[in-house]
Design the sequence.
């Protein structure tokens, strides 16, 4: 949203490029000065279909990327679009991961969470940070961004884990995190992925005395702090505006965290 | 410091600001946060007898002049309100709560009113004026005096002693006439106004309306003069308590609305411009204005404009 003019109308942008990431995931590239930070999201309007929130996977001031999994519904329609077709973009919205000069970060991603973590890694490298990039997936075909992360240079160490052991460590990404934190150099953990995974990551980080920031995923309608669909129990903080990036210490005791989310009519749905 | 307390249909509010229906009103946690931010009272999102899906996205956006929405009154239904929203809110009830109710037929309004009364709201607001569900339900009840009267009567009959206010539509030739008819049918007060229109905003690049529903209710700063005039008309026509709603974004806006005849001032779109914290800021602005202008009790200014 253009804060100066309070204009939250979508901007129609042509898809510059579509990159196939894996069997179900594409990255959509747009030529546009979005001005986003890692962890922020945009609302993407697929004309005539729907509008959904997606976190930004990369933004260098010239172009930005959205990495999107085809989970059916609106995304199935999005996957029918071709390069040059236009979509509407509103944003960027929400709070971001805060990176300080010289941080030693552990970035822990599960599934599609790898995309915003890649953006964070990219920005971290620019700020002379060391990065432990932990990426987990059910199997090697579902891993995202591993090649791109390797391209970020020597200050980024990639740690891969898969549930079936098809590549990297066999098991959960959280087990790898424990080992990484035991070395004692990491001063901040960022995580993005399924809420239950982030809860486990937060606990481990907390146990090791390391600050942890995560990105809460709630059903969002407006993205601009008005509709209240993404309000989190019991403080009523809004995932779209106060979040999505939040300090684990602030969310760990919320009755909703790791237990349920709400659907489009506001009904509780257990994880 | 001025006394900002207001009595509305027998219910005491700490200050005249009220969260309007449809904004930050999905859960008790969210309503309570709005009270913590400074609101004198809150209105729930409109509650249906059964679950209601609403429209698909895009459902809302704004500019500095206006806001437009076509949420389509999505809601989980009165069962969820009774099992969760009200008990959670009433546990430590931080301020009065107004239950907004909506239905597609007069008979459903009656059934719903009986259910919502059991939830123990302080006031029931009957939403007969949402402009963006027209295709689903035909012309809003608030646009035809006979329909507005029928709904008012059936709700009043079902709820006993809980005050019933009717949320009026600005999209009528004479809002005073509709208000008078509702007052004669037993309405205890009014909320005026609901959003205007519906309106339409077209993306000229994509050559299509931005809202999935094509049209939506218009709110925000641009509609304030129309809202003030509507409140003035309703007050003149009935003298009943009114929640003046429509484009109010500051303490001065709120004062203006009260001078037109509003006892309480509803704010919804204000949240887009100032966040939930805007409630506390607006209350401070009202207080400051009162102090500067020698107003000891805020109730002094209600309807002072002749």
Sequence:
């Amino acid at each position: 949203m253009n804060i100066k003019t309070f204009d939250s109308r979508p901007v129609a942008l042509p898809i510059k490029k579509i990159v196939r990431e894996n069997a179900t995931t594409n990255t959509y590239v747009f030529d546009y000065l979005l001005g986003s930070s890692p962890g922020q999201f945009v609302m993407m309007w697929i004309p005539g279909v729907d509008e959904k929130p997606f976190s930004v996977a990369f933004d260098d001031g010239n172009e930005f990327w959205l990495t999107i999994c085809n989970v059916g519904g609106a995304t199935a329609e999005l996957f029918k679009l071709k390069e040059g077709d236009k979509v509407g973009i509103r944003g960027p919205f929400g709070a971001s991961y805060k990176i300080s000069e010289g941080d030693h970060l552990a970035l822990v991603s599960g599934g599609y969470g790898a995309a915003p973590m890649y953006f964070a890694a990219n920005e971290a490298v620019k700020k002379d940070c060391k990065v432990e990039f932990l990426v987990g997936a059910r199997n090697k075909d579902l891993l995202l961004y591993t090649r791109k992360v390797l391209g970020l240079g020597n200050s980024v160490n990639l740690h891969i884990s898969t549930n079936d052991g098809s590549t990297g460590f066999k098991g959960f990404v959280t087990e790898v995190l424990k080992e990484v934190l035991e070395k004692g150099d990491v001063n901040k953990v960022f995580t993005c992925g399924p809420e239950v995974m982030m809860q486990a990551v937060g606990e481990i980080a907390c146990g090791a005395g390391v600050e942890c920031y995560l990105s809460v995923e709630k059903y969002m309608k407006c993205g601009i702090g008005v509709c209240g669909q993404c309000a989190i129990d019991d403080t009523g903080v809004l995932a779209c505006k106060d979040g999505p990036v939040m300090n684990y210490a602030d969310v760990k005791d919320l009755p909703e965290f790791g237990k349920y989310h709400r659907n489009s009519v506001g009904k509780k749905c257990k994880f | 410091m001025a006394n900002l307390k207001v009595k509305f249909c027998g219910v005491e509010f700490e200050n005249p600001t009220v969260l309007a229906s449809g904004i930050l009103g999905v859960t008790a946690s969210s309503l309570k946060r709005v009270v913590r931010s400074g609101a004198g009272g809150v209105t729930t999102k409109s509650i249906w007898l059964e679950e209601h899906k609403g429209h698909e996205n895009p459902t809302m956006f704004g500019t500095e002049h206006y806001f437009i929405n076509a949420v389509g009154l999505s809601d989980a239904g009165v069962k969820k309100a009774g099992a969760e929203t009200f008990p959670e809110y009433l546990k430590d009830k931080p301020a009065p709560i107004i239950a907004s109710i909506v239905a597609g037929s007069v008979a459903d309004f009656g059934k719903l009113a009986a259910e919502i009364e059991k939830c123990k709201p302080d006031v029931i607001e009957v939403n007969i004026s949402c402009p963006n569900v027209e295709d689903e339900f035909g012309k809003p009840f608030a646009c035809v005096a006979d329909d507005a009267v029928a709904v008012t009567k059936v709700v009043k009959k079902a709820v006993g002693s809980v005050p019933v206010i009717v949320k009026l539509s600005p999209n009528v030739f004479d809002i005073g006439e509709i208000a008078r008819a509702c007052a004669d049918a037993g309405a205890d007060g009014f909320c005026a106004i609901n959003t205007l229109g519906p309106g339409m905003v077209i993306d000229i690049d994509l050559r299509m309306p931005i809202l999935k529903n094509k049209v939506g209710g218009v709110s925000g700063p641009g509609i304030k003069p129309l809202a003030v005039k509507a409140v003035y008309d309703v007050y003149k026509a009935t003298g009943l308590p009114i929640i003046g709603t429509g484009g109010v974004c500051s303490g001065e806006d709120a004062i203006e609305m009260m001078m037109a005849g509003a006892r309480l001032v509803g704010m919804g779109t204000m949240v887009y411009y100032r966040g939930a914290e805007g409630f506390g800021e607006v209350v401070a602005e009202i207080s400051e204005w009162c102090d500067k202008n020698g107003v000891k009790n805020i109730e002094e200014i209600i309807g002072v404009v002749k």
Notes: The longest strand of chain A covers residues 50-59. The mean pLDDT of chain A is 95. The first helix of chain A runs from residue 74 to 78. Chain A has six helices and 18 strands.
